[in-house]
Amino acid sequence: MGRFLLKLGESWCDCGEFQALHLPCSHVIAACSHAAQAYQVHIHDVYKAASVFCVYNNTFPGIQDQSYWPQYYGRRLCPDPAMKRCKRGRPQSTRIRTEMDDEIETLNK
């Protein structure tokens, strides 16, 4: 069983998960359980419901009608009709067949 160095005050663990995700890793949860502490204290504010709800307190501007959009003078992209997928029937295989496939077919016949 591996041992990991843990610094709860600095939000640091040897595994790196605690620093990267700002969420308690399994080592933090185990250490808090052993010390009879709540691991929820070590969860970053970004993941808390109050922070998520604050995002939606702001008003978002609605998208205007297309007639209000500025004129676009850039390059126009047109799709290649040859690359369009046929909707009906079984999809055509794009797998590249090899010599091994030919040998298997001859053995099965």
From TrEMBL:
Record-annotated membrane-spanning stretches: none
PROSITE patterns in alphabetical order: PROKAR_LIPOPROTEIN, ZF_SWIM
Keywords in alphabetical order: Kinase, Metal-binding, Receptor, Transferase, Zinc, Zinc-finger
Chain positions covered by the region annotation Disordered: 85-109
Domain annotation SWIM-type: ranges: 4-36
Bias type Acidic residues, positions: 100-109
Keyword Kinase: yes
The organism's place on the tree of life at top rank: Eukaryota
GO function terms (MF aspect): kinase activity; zinc ion binding
Name used for this protein in its record: Receptor-like protein kinase HSL1
